[in-house]
Task: inverse folding
DNA sequence: GCAAAAGTGTTCCGACTACACCCATGC
DNA sequence: GCATGGGTGTAGTCGGAACACTTTTGC
């Protein structure tokens, strides 16, 4: 630990120089394509140096008077139109030399980036193809090399997605108002893989809690018995929210 | 979401004004006083405006060339001398109007704070009473009103402490090299409360994993049967580290 | 011997696993 | 009827909770 200290000599009468920062917000935006069983990430093509021509996570610099969360929502809204989503802060990357733009300037402006993680509803997410901009959903496994340290941020975000899905009710933020248990199960399998649980056990475990209410209505999609439509009951979930729950 | 956007008018030809930031690092430093069964937090007295005379979390502004983590270690080292500790990033607070210093300046410098969470070994932690500075361990329950939004940061840190303790082996970073299972149990009870588990079940659960090795040596502290001294075996833990473990 | 703390064993019970099986629909 | 997906039930098993009990020390 001693080795980490005092890189800038700290004489009693000279104040060490503080760094000046521009603060960026980067979003890891996930979406689940239930038709094709794919977990997708939103990436945008860079049209400026540095990393011109590279794919990157959608991001922006924070403006005057704007909160970090506001900035995160702004980036998102600039890229896709979506009504239902879950968003939270992920991690802050702030070491020196993260951004090549730091080098050329003499006055040492640092770029710090507060990453956020989002899950959006795929069917309603409409990409905004503004002008020349490239923007695309990439299946997670096929994401190419991204600009800056964005691959690292992405893997961090993927970890968080799996944790959140397993332990928090974020799935219901991104499912339609009413949904079948099959829909829910499929969402979980595309993110977590097939092997996390048997469908029938998944059913019973979830229904046992009592926050999924049967609407009485049914839906028929092609062959097979029609499925009951359920609704997430936020009031019934409220008392459970602090309990250690596994949505497996 | 639409309401969050475009606070700064964004005309096609005028770039919206970016905010300039100073970046601070705030530490929530916990320690467990096993003699008195108390969970303690480190706070320092402020000697400057704003919030002059208030207790606050130890913090600093990030210097040129310094990473966030380096800054966090520097603050810690300025306040206490300690060899064994666990430290990780907590959350980034960055809204406008967090810091009264933002108001007087015309050129809109914002203060962003990347909070960190640390757990240190109490017996070896020596407070550095530099000059007039007030610095103190406060029992968590008795922490007064702190400067800025530091009470919020603290409660965030306390949540993280309980989660980490329950699901990660951070206790071993802060226990002596060899320790008794009673020591370990006491650490857990002071942080999580008495009711999390029975001592004998705690024993068997932990020993079952196999990463605690009996040194063969015993220790006798006053009355009662002498306890075996155990050592945390990092190599034996390695293969388990990605498994979902509960240290309860 | 007695109290105190460490350490072991046992019983009970709930929860999860892995299935087998029934139900309702399209074709 | 048969394939397909939805939904129910059950036997086996694992693990945690609770608690009784034994061991080893100080006094």
Result:
């Amino acid at each position: 630990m001693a080795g980490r200290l005092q890189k800038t000599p700290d004489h009693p009468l000279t104040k060490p120089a503080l760094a000046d920062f521009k603060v960026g917000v980067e979003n890891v935006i996930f979406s689940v394509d239930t038709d094709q069983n794919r977990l997708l990430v939103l990436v945008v093509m860079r049209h400026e140096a540095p990393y011109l021509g590279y794919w990157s996570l959608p991001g922006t610099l924070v403006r005057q008077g704007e909160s970090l969360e506001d900035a995160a929502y702004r980036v998102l809204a600039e890229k896709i139109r979506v009504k239902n989503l879950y968003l939270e802060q992920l991690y802050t990357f702030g070491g020196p030399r993260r951004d090549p733009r730091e080098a050329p300037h003499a006055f040492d402006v640092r770029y710090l980036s507060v990453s956020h993680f989002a899950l959006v509803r795929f069917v309603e997410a409409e990409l905004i193809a503004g002008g020349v901009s490239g923007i695309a959903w990439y299946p997670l496994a096929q994401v190419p090399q991204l600009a800056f340290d964005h691959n690292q941020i992405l893997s961090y975000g993927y970890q968080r997605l799996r944790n959140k899905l397993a332990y928090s009710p974020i799935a219901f933020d991104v499912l339609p108002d009413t949904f079948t248990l099959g829909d829910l199960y499929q969402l979980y399998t595309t993110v977590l893989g097939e092997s996390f649980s048997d469908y029938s056990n998944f059913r019973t475990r979830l229904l046992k809690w009592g926050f999924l209410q049967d609407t009485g209505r049914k839906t028929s999609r092609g062959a097979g018995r029609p499925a009951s439509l359920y609704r997430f009951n936020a009031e019934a979930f409220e008392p459970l929210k602090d309990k250690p729950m596994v949505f497996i």
